[in-house]
Amino acid sequence: MKEISTPSQPVLAPPLEQDVSGSVLATYSYKDPLYVFALVLDSFVCIAAVHLCLLLDLFLGLLLKLVAAGASSNV
Predict the structure, then answer these.
(1) HEC per residue, the chain
(2) Can you give the pTM of this predicted structure?
(3) Largest Cα–Cα distance in the chain?
(4) Is residue 27 within 8 Å of 16, Cβ to Cβ?
(5) What are the pLDDT tens digits along the chain (75 aa)?
(6) d(C-alpha 53, C-alpha 63), whole Å
């Protein structure tokens, strides 16, 4: 059997990126499956929100036309 060797020195994380104010910037990797899942989910949520706004605009526009047509026929 082969023995698993462990490094004698701990593996250090890369230094964190900072912006000009010194705030630490988040670092993401496309190799991280959770990040990819969040990115895809966010895309679907944004697309759904845009479609919902378009449908709402369409229905409110049609409702306004119906109300205007009903009001003009009663005059």
Answers:
(1) CCCCCCCCCCCCCCCCCECCCCCECCCCCCCCHHHHHHHHHHHHHHHHHHHHHHHHHHHHHHHHHHHHHHHHHCC
(2) 0.50
(3) 95
(4) yes
(5) 555 655 566 555 555 666 566 666 666 667 778 888 888 999 999 999 999 999 999 999 999 998 888 877 765
(6) 15
Integer CA distances (angstroms), 42 to 24, 29, 30, 49, 56, in order:
23, 16, 15, 10, 21
pLDDT, position 39: 87
The tokens of 67 are what?
């109300």
